[in-house]
Each structure stands twice: as C-alpha cells, then as structure tokens.
Write a structure and sequence with these properties.
CATH superfamily: Porin
Order of helices and strands: HEEEEEEHEEEEEEEEEEEE
Number of helices: 2
CATH architecture: Beta Barrel
CATH topology: Porin
Strand content: over 45%
Strand order of the largest sheet: 1-3-4-5-6-7-8-9-10-11-12-13-14-16-17-18
CATH class: Mainly Beta
Number of strands: 18
Helix content: under 10%
Number of domains: 1
Distance between the termini: 10 Å
C-alpha cells in the first residue's frame, strides 16, 4: 500500500509534466497552467464544562488547547496550487478567521526537477517533523490536535524558510530532510535578525507488508532560541497570576509511528490506522519572574514531554470510529536561588485526556463528526467535552499525506 501510494505520486508528477509539454505546443490550451482552487468550510458546536483558556497544569508558559464553546464557524481554508513551469510548483493556503481577517497558513514554492530524489521547498510551510504536523486541520482524524501538539507546537509548527528532502532510490521508503527557518512559530519568538532562528532535522522510513499492511516510522529534532518570550497568568508559589519572561535555548526530539491495515488492500470498504507520537523538550536559559512587580531574573531549566496513542477504524464504507489517549509530563524545573521561593518547580501532576469520535463521510468532499472527550489536563478541573463538527470541501483538492 505504501509503495503504491508513492508510485502513484510519482506517476502523477510525470503525467503533469507530460500535459504541460503538450500544452506548450498548443496555443489554444491556455488553461493548462490554470491553478487548482479549493475552499474548505468547517465549523460546528462545542459543549465544555470548563473555560478552554485555562492551560494544562504545569504548562502555563505554553499555549492552551484551542476550543470554541457553543456554535462556531471554525477556520475556513482557501487553497490554490499549480505547476509554475517544468521546474517549479507553487501552493498557498489562506486561513479565513471567522472574526474577520485573513492569514497566510502556507505559501511556498517547491522544485519538480532537481533529480536524484531531491526536493527543495521555500516560503512558509508546515514543518516535516513528526507525523501529524504536515496535515492540514481538515485532514485530522479528530476535531482537535493531541495535547502534546497543542502545548508544545501551538497545534502545528510552521515557519518561513527552506526545506530540503532526499528520497532514497530504494525498495523500502527512506526519506531524510532538514529545514532552516526564521523561528517565528512557537516555541520560537519573532525577532529581527539575520540568518536562521530555528532548525529541524527529520528522517522517515516505511514499507509494505504484503498487500494489506503498511507502516511508517520517524524521528525528529527541532532547535530554536526564545528571546523575551512572555507568558501571562503564570501561577507562582503564592497562587498569584504573574507575567514572566524567558530567554534561552529550546531543543525538542520526537518519535512517530504509523501502521495501517486494509483487508485485501481495499481501503474503500474498511481499514484500521494506528499511530503514536512522543515529544520531549528541554529549555535552558534565564527566567524573569513577575516582570510587573518583583522582576527577579535567574537561571531556569526544564524538560517537558508528552505523547498520544490513537486508533481509527473504518468499520463500513463511509463510517469511521476513533479512540485517542493523550498524556503530558510537565517535568520538574531547576530554578536559580533568587527565584526558588517564587517559581513552582514541581506540579506533581500529569495532564491526560481520553477522546472518542464517530464520523460519516457522504463522499470524499464532506464529513460530519461527533466527538466526546474526558479531559483531565487541568488538575481539579475535570471536563466532559462534546463536539459536533462539519468539514466540507469545494473545488479541486490534492491528495493528503500518507
């Protein structure tokens, strides 16, 4: 299955180039280079017992999982892509905020003819680290991202920069890549400087086992530097909500694994997909405690981690169910003597969440989903969550990642 997907992609690229070559000799085929345009409409309803703005325990200096209460439009995505010429392809995804405004989610150019398995991408793009990070929101198997993605990557890591991948000419899928970027996405900080502010290395391997099984495994490394990264409403030893600043180095390692099974290789009727990811981040630098009050600066080091395990089962055509378990470890902070009496070092609590979903797809262009979650990510604030979601795709839309 895995090799067939890769082969289909290669054939699609070759076919695209053949069409372009024919169009070059036909003056009436002006629309051969017209871009593919798509619009993803999503939204739904959320019922939560706790304030979704409250962060996971021990992760107050990280983003809180994004949830909307009541009826909500959600974020619509407008995509456009096309081959520019025989050497380059371009793609852009614009996020339409329901409150108004447009932001650039992705906007990149990538090569199509470097050869020797090399591919260069430049612009703004989702990083190749991990497994879920490159998947757009409409392709997620659940309404939201796992907790570890929410708190460590603010749902997804995107950056402005360069990415170089090499696909080995082997029977077994082997891909290695690297990225250099500005470091604008969390955990980095936007800053004016020359050169690179962040770097990523990743490797992916995969293969088929007969016609029914396929798998992919990967490892990732991300490094960046945070400068005056501000965190608000951080609880201190006295239970007060203060504002802190952190400056230092951030390094994250990750592991991911995906396994897929389809009886007789037919994914249309039924399939099972199991996946898991683990990330571990170490931050080392200086913390300025209570910048609006005491403003005490001293050393600060912490290692935090998290993982999720999930399975999705298409039990009949168009119908799927899924189960996911998330868990975080806030770690124990090593705090300098000046802030030993100010900063909580050990929360002694591991946030977790269990999620169940069922969805129905009338076609490949529409999906309706029900999701239930028991959220224990905040100590003493258990939350039973209920979501209804719709995802509708208009226009031409490319195939999703493996």
């Amino acid at each position: 299955m895995f090799k067939r997907i890769c082969s289909s992609t290669a054939m699609a690229v070759l076919l695209s180039h053949s069409i372009q070559a024919a169009a070059a000799d036909n003056s009436n085929a002006d629309n051969a280079f017209n871009p593919a345009f798509s619009l993803i409409l999503s939204g739904g309803y959320g019922n939560l017992q706790q304030d979704p703005a409250i962060p996971a325990t021990g992760f107050a200096m990280n983003p809180a999982p994004e949830h909307e209460q009541g009826f909500n439009l959600g974020e619509s995505e407008m995509g456009i892509s096309a081959n520019i010429d025989p050497q380059f392809r371009g793609a852009a995804t614009l996020a339409l905020d329901p409150a108004g405004g447009v932001s650039v989610e992705n906007a990149f150019v990538q090569t199509t003819s470097l050869g020797d398995g090399l591919n260069l991408k430049f612009g703004r793009f989702f990083s190749g680290l991990g497994y879920l990070n490159e998947h757009h929101a409409h392709a997620w198997d659940f309404t939201d991202q796992p907790l570890v993605y929410a708190v460590l990557w603010e749902n997804q890591l995107a950056d402005d920069g360069l990415q170089l991948k090499w696909l080995a000419p082997t029977e077994m899928f082997f891909e290695i890549g690297g990225e250099v970027g500005k470091g604008r996405g969390f955990p980095g900080t936007e800053r004016a400087k020359n050169g690179s502010g962040a770097g990523v290395l990743f490797v992916h391997v995969g293969d088929d086992i007969g016609i029914e099984h396929s798998w992919r495994a990967g490892a990732s490394l991300h490094r960046t530097r945070r400068v005056d990264a501000e965190s608000v409403d951080v609880p201190d030893m006295g239970g007060n909500a203060v504002i802190n600043l952190f400056t230092g180095d951030s390094q994250t390692v990750g592991l991911d694994l995906v396994w897929k099974y389809a009886p007789d290789g037919n994914v249309r009727n039924s399939y099972v997909k199991l996946q898991a990811e683990y990330f571990r981040r170490k931050e080392d630098g200086e913390l300025s405690y209570d910048t609006e009050g005491a403003n005490v600066t001293d050393s600060y080091t912490i290692t935090q981690s998290g993982f999720y395990v999930q399975g999705v089962y298409q039990f009949m055509p168009r119908w799927r169910s899924g189960l996911r378990y998330d868990r975080l470890d806030p770690g124990v902070a090593q705090v300098g003597a000046l802030n030993a009496g100010n900063v909580i070092a050990d929360y002694a609590y591991n946030p977790s969440r269990t999620t169940l979903m069922v969805d129905y797809s009338a076609s490949e262009f529409s999906r309706l989903r029900l999701q239930l979650a028991h959220d224990n990510s905040r100590q003493g604030l258990a939350d039973n969550q209920f979501f209804v979601q719709y995802i509708m795709s208009l226009g031409a839309h490319g195939a999703h990642q493996y």
